[in-house]
Amino acid sequence: MYQYKLSDNIDPQENINMFRYSTTSSDYEHTHEFFEIVFIASGSGVHNVSGVSYSVERGDVLFIDFDQTHAFSSDTQMTIVNCLLDPVFIGKELMNAENAIDILTLSAYVEFSTKVSRFVPKVIFRGKDLLKLDLLFESMLEEFEEKSIGYKTAIQGYLQVLLTYIFRKMREEGDESASLLSHKVASDMLQDLEASFFGKISLNELAAKYSYNASYLSRIFKACYGKSPMAFIHEKRMDEAIRLLRETDLTVEEIGRQVGYGEKKQFYKIFKQYTGLTPSKMRDARNKMTTIK
């Protein structure tokens, strides 16, 4: 796989390279020895980052990390602004940065470090945010191309603002993505519990199925439904036990086993916690009502 070298693409006296170009072609899969910020100024296409394809259009920004595989194809003529970046350009403290998270945990981005745990390669700018980004990239390109006195300092300032916008969007989109994923997992889990709450259910088995820690999975479920998975299971079992006590002549022990409790003692304990009565007293109350009728 081809690798774009730092020395071939970025002047060591500048530590940054910026250019705009239009294309209707595709670029083969490759990696970089530097960061690449890609701004889609117009058109649309597909960018592939680390094996994941992202549809892109005007206003989208991709942040390509060191050594991430990257390729793209265009649907129509696509105009792209590229910012190739050696971290040392931001500050000497980033000279040994090995990935984008290093930028978050160093320099001015420490406030993001506990809030963005991973990259979101594509971030979306629309409306007022897009207009601000247009102006920002235009200003950076102008400074880089004209190279007037103090242009590096000016670009550094613009870049700080740009990275702040990007990391802010990563935080927002990461939160939204996590929220959607959590609700999807909780919804799938709810269906599993509703389909099998009479049987033997292990939270650890569910955690393995969804590739989550059991306690974290329980928190996701409770955040969505207001109760823990086990509380939900017991509630469903109790509803069914009450129905069977009222509508059938099954013994209390048979009902306990039928709704998922192998031990009579456990069934009695949980039943009383939920209803305030023992199963036998609830059945006695039913029998008295039947006699009165």
TrEMBL record:
Keywords: DNA-binding, Transcription, Transcription regulation
Protein name from the UniProt record: AraC family transcriptional regulator
InterPro entries: AraC-bd, Homeodomain-like_sf, HTH-like, HTH_AraC, HTH_AraC-typ_CS, RmlC-like_jellyroll, Tscrpt_reg_AraC-type_HTH
Domain HTH araC/xylS-type: 183-285
Highest taxon listed in the record's lineage: Bacteria
One Pfam family hit: HTH_18
Keyword field contains Signal: no
Keyword presence, Transcription regulation: yes
Taxonomic lineage: Bacteria, Bacillati, Bacillota, Bacilli, Bacillales
A single MF term (Gene Ontology): DNA-binding transcription factor activity
